[in-house]
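Entry 14. Structure prediction run on the chain below.
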Amino acid sequence: MDGSSNKQDIVITREYDYPVELVWKAWTDPTLVMKWWGPTHYTSPRC
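Output returned:
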């Protein structure tokens, strides 16, 4: 290796048709995160 980096950044953007306060709460309230985190039929027993 010559010390050069092949590092690349990936930026993913998603727009939600909800008030920013509600989206923030969905990401920061453990009770809400457990309801949506993961694929269909996935359970998150604690957060």
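Residues 17-47 form one domain.
Filed with the rest of this week's runs.
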